[in-house]
Q: What sequence folds into this?
């Protein structure tokens, strides 16, 4: 089993943790606090989801090696542990190719669903 020490970061209320379209080199394991996941659609902020302790945000950009599909902001004080692309690759070593393919397909479906949700909520 691989033991990885993760860097900790803290975000204050309203801080943007990352923005849609940015290159994602980190994912975040939320240790405390809550975040909101949102997109800009037709000049409006569309909230897609909220996440809290024990959940990971930003993983899609790392797994797919594509730009961020949405933005994330802190709802209050948020403490996270940082997972870098290098650390994720270490964690994924030895994962069967078929499982990796399933994960990539799920990420694409989630990305597509987020786009549809944002479009429908902005109408």
A:
């Amino acid at each position: 089993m691989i033991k990885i020490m993760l860097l900790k970061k803290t975000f204050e209320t309203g801080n943007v943790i990352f923005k849609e379209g940015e290159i994602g080199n980190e994912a975040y394991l939320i240790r405390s606090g809550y975040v909101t996941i949102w997109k800009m659609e037709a000049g409006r902020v569309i909230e897609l989801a909220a996440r809290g302790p024990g959940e990971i945000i930003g993983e899609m950009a790392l797994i797919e090696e594509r730009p961020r599909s949405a933005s994330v902001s802190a709802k209050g004080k948020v403490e996270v542990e940082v997972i870098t692309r290098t650390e994720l690759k270490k964690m994924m070593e030895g994962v069967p190719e078929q499982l990796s393919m399933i994960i990539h397909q799920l990420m694409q479906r989630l990305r597509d669903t987020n786009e549809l949700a944002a479009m429908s909520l902005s109408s």
User: Anything to note?
Assistant: The chain has three helices and eight strands. The domain at 8-85+92-122 is CATH 2.60.120.10 (Jelly Rolls).
